[in-house]
Amino acid sequence: MQFSRPDCLRAARAASSFAFGLLGLLSCAAAQDSADAVERGRQLFMSNGCYSCHGTVGQGGERSAGPRLAPDPHPFEAFKAMLRNPPEGMPRFDARFVSDDQVLAIHRYLASIPRGRAARDIPLLQP
Ligand code: HEC
After folding, report:
1. What is the DSSP secondary structure assignment for residue 74, as one 8-state letter?
2. Most buried one in 6, 34, 66, 101, CB count within 10 A?
3. 79 lines ligand 1 (CB under 6 A)
4. Which atom of ligand 1 has the smallest separation from the CA of 44?
5. Top-confidence residue, 63 or 106
6. Domain 5-115 listed as CATH 3.30.9
7. Neighbour-count burial of 106, counting CB atoms closer than 10 A to its CB (0-12 exposed, 13-18 middle, 19+ buried)
8. Where are the domains of the chain?
């Protein structure tokens, strides 16, 4: 579960004992770290132009510009291999321009995108 920073701090302050307060603060820091990593990945996904073919949330581009990447992106090594030696139709992203670390951040961003609701759970789509 992730909390926004103010929620975390409030919860930590509200904790009655010092030990619980400390625990709360530590988990806030961890949640904030991973939120920062995801945000960094989102920015890299935008600044490297991935979004222009794959959609801003990796949903896939129109008219087959680029396939869907999220939710559930390929495992990291396979994902990275696609950037280094892309299939036809996708530009190559060499490590000199997008480092392994940056690819990892992009992957974390895509992995953080939640799955949408199933069609059978959306009343408007029912026959
Ligand atoms: C100019 C358009 C374009 C851009 C920009 C682009 N891609 Fe792609 N990408 C494609 C196309 C087209 C394919 C599918 C090629 C094929 O299957 O023949 C693809 C395939 C992929 C795949 C493999 C998906 C699969 O299921 O086969 C991954 C992963 C991927 N792209 C990631 C990225 C990332 C990350 C970026 C940004 C760093 C990026 N792409 C930028 C067009 C693009």
Report:
1. P
2. 66
3. yes
4. 38
5. 106
6. no
7. buried
8. 5-115
Nearest residue (CA) to ligand 1, atom 17: 87
Place of tokens 């510009």: 65
CA of 65, closest atom in ligand 1 = 12
Give SS3 for 65. coil
Q: Using one digit for the tens of pLDDT, what is the confidence trace for 61-98?
A: 988 799 999 999 999 999 999 999 998 889 999 999 99
| C-beta 104 within 6 A of ligand 1 | no
CB of 83 shorter than 6 A to ligand 1: yes
Q: Tell me, in angstroms, the distance from the centre of ligand 1 to residue 15's CA.
A: 47
- Atom index in ligand 1 nearest the CA of residue 52 equals 5
Both tokens of 65, joined, read: 């510009």
Residue whose CA is at the smallest distance from ligand 1 atom 38? 50
pLDDT above 50: residue 1:
no
How does pLDDT run across 4-61, given as a tens digit for each residue? 555 655 655 555 566 666 566 667 777 777 889 899 999 999 999 999 999 999 999 9
